[in-house]
Amino acid sequence: MKVIVLVLLVILVIVLQDRILRRTATRKLDYECRFSKQEAYEGEILYLQETVQNRKFLPVPWLKVDIHTSCWLDFAGTNSVVTQSGRRVSSSFVLGARKKVIRNWKVLCLKRGLFTIENVTFVWGDLLGTSNSSAAKSVKSSLMVYPSPVNLENILVPLNYLQGDTIVKRLIIDDPFLVSGIREYSGYDPMNRIHWQATAKAGRLMVKKNDFTSQHKIQVILNIQSSEYEFDEVFDKPMIELGIKVAATVFDRAHRLGIPISFNCNGCLYDTPDKTIQTDIEAGNQHFQRLMKILAMLELKKVVDFDNFISDFENRSGDSEIIVITSYINDNIFNAIRKIGRFRNNLKIFILDRCVSTKGIPGDMDVYILNGTEDYAINEKKH
Question: Count of domains in the chain?
Answer without folding.
Answer: 2
